[in-house]
Amino acid sequence: xxxxxxxxxxxxxxxxxxxxxxxxxxxxxxxxxxxxxxxxxxxxxxxxxxxxxxxxxxxxxxxxxxxxxxxxxxxxxxxxxxxxxxxxxxxxxxxxxxxxxxxxxxxxxxxxxxxxxxxxxxxxxxxxxxxxxxxxxxxxxxxxxxxxxxxxxxxxxxxxxxxxxxxxxxxxxxxxxxxxxxxxxxxxxxxxxxxxxxxxxxxxxxxxxxxxxxxxxxxxxxxxxxxxxxxxxxxxxxxxxxxxxxxxxxxxxxxxxxxxxxxxxxxxxxxxxxxxxxxxxxxxxxxxxxxxxxxxxxxxxxxxxxxxxxxxxxxxxxxxxxxxxxxxxxxxxxxxxxxxxxxxxxxxxxxxxxxxxxxxxxxxxxxxxxxxxxxxxxxxxxxxxxxxxxxxxxxxxxxxxxxxxxxxxxxxxxxxxxxxxxxxxxxxxxxxxxxxxxxxxxxxxxxxxxxxxxxxxxxxxxxxxxxxxxxxxxxxxxxxxxxxxxxxxxxxxxxxxxxxxxxxxxxxxxxxxxxxxxxxxxxxxxxxxxxxxxxxxxxxxxxxxxxxxxxxxxxxxxxxxxxxxxxxxxxxxxxxxxxxxxxxxxxxxxxxxxxxxxxxxxxxxxxxxxxxxxxxxxxxxxxxxxxxxxxxxxxxxxxxxxxxxxxxxxxxxxxxxxxxxxxxxxxxxxxxxxxxxxxxxxxx
Length: 684
Description:
Helices cover 51% and strands 9% of the residues. With 684 residues, it is an alpha+beta fold. It has 4 domains: 3-87, DNA Primase, Chain A (Alpha-Beta Complex); 100-237, DNA primase DNAg catalytic core, N-terminal domain; 372-445; 495-682, no CATH class. The strands form 4 sheets. The protein has a 5-stranded antiparallel sheet, with helices on both faces. The chain has a 5-stranded mixed sheet with strand order 13-12-14-15-16. The protein has a 4-stranded antiparallel sheet with strand order 6-9-10-11, with helices on both faces. Helix 5 crosses helix 6 (130-142) and helix 23 (553-565) crosses helix 24 (573-580). The longest helix is centred in the N-terminal third of the chain and has 30 residues, at 97-126. It starts with a helix and ends with a helix.
């Protein structure tokens, strides 16, 4: 049994989902209003027999317990596997003694920080002394934070005094060296140890998984410097690798595909209080490569920079744009696959001021955010004198060309060059010549795609530096409170033979697509042929093969990666899958492909996916016919599940015109597939 199956066998989907969604029993199923979209009539259905869920409303999505956890929490598959495994006592990744020691050390530091976050928060909200009462008044009146916001972000207060936190933590059993390492205390040259934060408003800073890793502290006295004091760099806290508020904004960013980045945590807190929950703060003078990769491509397709309107903020915006261009160049061969925009706040206000005074203006300003090319053209050319020399104008052009060329759309590139031509009074022909020169330079500097495999036995090593960093593996989150399965039955029913055959079919189909991704084009062409000119069939039950055709959690993730691979043009599909696949999926890939490449198994981590097609195409099989037949059978199984669900809902009084229309469409598609499969069998 794989780790994935072991976790699922110990986890009841009803018990898990009920922690977040109020389910009501309806016959054999459980129903609720969908947590992923607004609705009045419940369309979210959980099936305890198949341990699956499905939304029959606007989402039209479904999956297993992993799929729900990923969508609800905004987790990757690896994060969902780790967190759910932890909740039922399944060790997903075994740790070496050194890793275990490091995890325990980090746990200690997190314990210190979490304890103080709670204590600082208690000091503020209880306001038992004049200093705390003044801090609470400042929070409400000067910053404009509501009590709900204070509680939600656990804003607190560090009282005056040199050793309040130090003494408290020592009483709880923490060692002085650990307290210093956490950043809460510091030691001076004379060896005296004292609190770092004194008489300050305390903002807990969390990582993307919601764990306290440090603090931001706002001075409350006018003569106290610096005004803002962050935790020092520690094993947990590195502000260049964190985005404040990402734990709270993650789901909203994933749903909207848009992230708004502000400069400071006060800006972000004000935005969330106003209801704009896709806002995060970079906590520094410029966006870093690591911060950008926390958002792109996993969560966001659009990034809006809303930094301060002063000169420092404008400089930070330009630096952030350059970081974005360089970062995305590494992953996408110089083409920006994310929509980068800049929000300009009128009257030189900071986001904090605007959101506190006129929060209703924010949405309009976000909608009006300038594309980065328009912004940089406007900023760079504004400083040119009316009678600028050719050399000055040429210098601006050469500075802007790399950014203006970093678009996936050639029409946008041409439009950008036309705008710059007008601003600089330089012919578009000259700009195009410089642009072509720049493209040649970029092509020389860009990393080449891995070469196709030859007939030799050696595999090129993978470029692990290009892999997306997996989530932390430390066993450091408090386990979710998940009740055990009901007495007398397993958490998940024993998989019947039919279900095992379905998973085997999924494995076989996915194996063929990994071996030869071009087969996906042939499969999807067959679905389009069956749909003919019937748009509802093509958009619904006879759409392209996708992750919804798979029930196995790992196969769903792999299929999504494969379909995403065909939406981009910079990497070969298998290379794209390899680069973006999480490490926790490697055992599944090994198991999936072992029958086909048993002799190559020792080299799975050394170029398998890049060279798999070349190695296995030597086998003399009718790949096209086999792939199409398996995909049709897979879609037939998916339709059978959907038809069964609708029948059950009808029997349980859940009939609705929309469900009846869906049922007729599913039945029609299944009939077309059955006829096609009969023809395939007869023609063998």
